[in-house]
Design the sequence.
């Protein structure tokens, strides 16, 4: 645990020093309406929906290809993302969209005074343990998203709005999995 | 009017990438406004103290669903050209469950972790690295689980086709379900936060 925090030179403040009061988050129904309009616009303009995990798999495939081109060309999963070599796999719709998500998130947080160098966690868990949980949780998420052919954006939101059967089953199982696990991990959050 | 515009050749690939970036900005902006860059708010959903995830997601789904339904009905949008993924029942159900477990352990999903990192959260960045590691592991074991990955294939199938009802009826049903979920969410949220106040 200690070695993980040693990786980060500056000590991370977990409790906020409320020098500037951050604006409260917006009304969830209003945010949902806005998000729904963004999704609708994507359907109308592009004929496709939003996504996030796909961009990360493109980056992983490219990294694997850089480290071991031979292995990447033999593995059917990575090969699928790399294509036939005529186009750059990072010149991808989802990669550009996720770059936008980063910029949009930054702009919104900046305008609301919510940029904060911190680690989000409950009061009863150490920062390093929280970071371990973040990595482990992310790994489950990455694996699950690949198996389900999409994540919360690609399956739940996009497929949900298009009334796709597989997406609705996926969404219900996401909530089932999270609620089933929540009790065992409550010390991290409460 | 012929939508989806891209499928009717209104613009090419290069322009679609610029639009992807612009759409992404709006997406990220909305997620941050909703508090989705904050793992504690996202995790609170699973302890019933803050039901934002459910409220935002179902409002977004209902909004986009009604928009698609209306635009299709008046003939502006050709729904057959809007991409939906094929249904592979078992791998999608198991994938969703694993993803849900990862959601409450890690506190984010791939999209929200990007927003979290963008607003300075280190756990968001570590989560992203975890997602990439999980994807890498999936890629490595993919040849072994290949047959399961392609099992229980059902093709492109919507709820209305599967239940043999009409599009309009299914849209109505989802709206009613969402409204009921909102009422329950508001009540549960109030009850749980009062309970936590007492215990503190």
Sequence:
């Amino acid at each position: 645990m200690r070695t993980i925090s040693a990786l980060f030179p500056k000590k991370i403040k977990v409790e906020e020093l409320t020098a500037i009061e951050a604006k409260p988050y917006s009304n969830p129904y209003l945010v949902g309406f806005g998000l729904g309009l963004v999704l609708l616009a994507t359907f109308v303009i592009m004929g496709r929906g939003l996504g996030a995990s796909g961009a990360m798999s493109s980056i992983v495939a490219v990294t694997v290809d850089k480290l071991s081109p031979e292995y990447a060309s033999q593995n059917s999963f990575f090969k699928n993302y790399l294509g036939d070599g005529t186009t750059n796999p990072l010149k991808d719709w989802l990669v550009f969209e996720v770059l936008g998500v980063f910029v949009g998130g930054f702009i919104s947080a900046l305008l609301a005074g919510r940029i904060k160098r911190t680690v989000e966690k409950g009061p009863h868990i150490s920062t390093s343990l929280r970071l371990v949980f973040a990595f482990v949780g992310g790994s489950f998420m990455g694996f699950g998203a690949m198996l389900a052919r999409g994540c919360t954006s690609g399956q739940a939101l996009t497929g949900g709005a298009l009334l796709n059967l597989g997406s609705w089953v996926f969404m219900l199982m996401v909530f089932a999995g999270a609620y089933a696990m929540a009790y065992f991990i409550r010390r991290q959050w409460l | 009017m012929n939508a989806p515009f891209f499928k009717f050749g209104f613009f090419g690939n290069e322009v679609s990438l610029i639009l992807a970036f612009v759409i992404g900005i709006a997406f990220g902006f909305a997620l941050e406004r909703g508090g989705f860059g904050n793992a504690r708010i996202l995790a609170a959903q699973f302890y019933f103290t803050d039901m934002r995830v459910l409220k935002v997601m179902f409002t977004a789904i209902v909004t986009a669903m009604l928009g698609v339904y209306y635009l299709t009905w008046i003939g502006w949008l050709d729904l057959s050209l809007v991409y939906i993924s094929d249904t592979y029942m078992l791998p999608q159900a198991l994938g969703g469950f694993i993803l849900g477990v990862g959601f409450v352990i890690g506190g984010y999903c791939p999209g929200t972790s990007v927003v979290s990192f963008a607003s300075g959260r280190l756990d968001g960045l570590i989560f992203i690295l975890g997602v990439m590691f999980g994807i890498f592991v999936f890629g490595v074991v993919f040849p072994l689980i290949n047959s399961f990955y392609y099992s229980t294939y059902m093709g492109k199938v919507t709820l209305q086709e599967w239940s043999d009802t009409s599009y309009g009826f299914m849209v109505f049903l989802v709206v009613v379900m969402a409204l009921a979920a909102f009422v329950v969410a508001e009540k549960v949220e109030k009850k749980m936060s009062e309970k936590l106040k007492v215990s503190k």
